[in-house]
Amino acid sequence: MLIALTRAVAPSLNRCELTHLARAPIDVALAVRQHEQYEAALREAGCSIAHAAPEPDLPDSVFIEDTAVVCDEVAVVTRPGAASRRPETAAVTASLRAFRRVEAIEAPGTLDGGDVLVAGRTVYVGVGARSNVEGARQLEERLSPYGYEVRLVPVNGCLHLKSAATLVSPTAVLVNPAWVDALVFASLDIVVVDPGESFAANALLLGDRILYSPAYPRTRALLERRGLRVVPVDLSELAKAEGALTCCSLVFKRDTDLPSPSSTLIAESRIPLKGIQRDPARSASWAMPSF
Ligand code: GLY
Predict the structure, then answer these.
(1) In ligand 1, which atom is closest to the CA atom of 80?
(2) Catalytic site includes residue 158
(3) What is the CATH number for 185?
(4) Is residue 196 part of a domain?
């Protein structure tokens, strides 16, 4: 069973952060209805919905993906790059404690969950306007005891890594190569968005299907030609706030579905004590790669 943690659309949504889009009036009532349809699609895909406490005065709080990275073994609460969004994490931390051990990114690290793409044990972290190298380094410090490896990815021209690239199957990634170098994902099958559909790279993979915006029909056709099951979900009002399909949920396994304790004992024994030094042999990986 999957849990999808979501949070209600804030009535203050029109005061959201904007980086790449011009401000346009958002019909909040319509945004609420679209969010309800999104939650219905999550349920239809087998998710059980849990709600974080609403934050009516935090305009971007519906974009709950940015507040945490949830893996099977641990949840890492982020420190969002936009100062206005940092208060969003408190209620999410409280919600996640019901499901996972919770760790956190600390200053001067910044990290938005929208910049984190997890593919197996590889964790791609987009470094740009919102997430910095220190945030990525702390994420690896918290995840490496469980066998995850972080790769830094330069992102240009869009808000988050997941504006530019998301998984459409466990082994395939949908990419807008104008915003991220597709070669970063050379170990995966790469599907490139239609060149006329810049924002088309954000899809929410849920088991046998992807939730996908109806605004990108040519890329949708590409995906369907590959045999992928595409479920249209319209979040047009949230798109005006620079949000997309992945942004509105944190999806993770219910802990009862996780591997038995015996299979995690080895990983547990590798959890570092707070303050432990990184292996110096790995520190070179914290230089940003150039492409
Ligand atoms: N409005 C979404 C964000 O800027 O984080």
Answers:
(1) 5
(2) no
(3) 3.75.10.10
(4) yes
Catalytic: 248?
A: no
Do 175 and 191 touch, CB atoms closer than 8 A? yes
The token pair at 196 is 């006329």
Q: Confirm whether 274 is domain-assigned.
A: no
Instruction: Tell me the per-residue pLDDT of 62-101, one tens digit each, with 9 for 90 and over.
Output: 999 999 999 999 999 999 999 999 999 999 999 999 999 9
Mutation choice for ligand 1 from 67, 78, 85, CB with most ligand atoms inside 8 A: 85
Tell me if 287 is assigned to some domain. Answer: no
pLDDT, tens digit (0-9, with 9 covering 90-100), for 228-279? 999 999 999 999 999 999 999 999 999 766 655 444 433 333 333 222 233 3
In a domain, 106, yes or no: yes
Residue 240: domain span: 2-260
- The total domain count for the chain is 1
Residue 136: C-alpha distances to residues 37, 84, 151, 290 (Å): 33, 20, 8, 16
Cβ pair 152, 140 in contact under 8 A:
no
pTM score: 0.90
DSSP state letter for 272? P
* Sequence-distant (≥ 6) Cβ neighbours of residue 151 within 8 angstroms: 122, 123, 124, 125, 184
String of DSSP letters for 228-262 = --EEE---HHHHTTT--TGGG-EEEE-GGGSPPHH
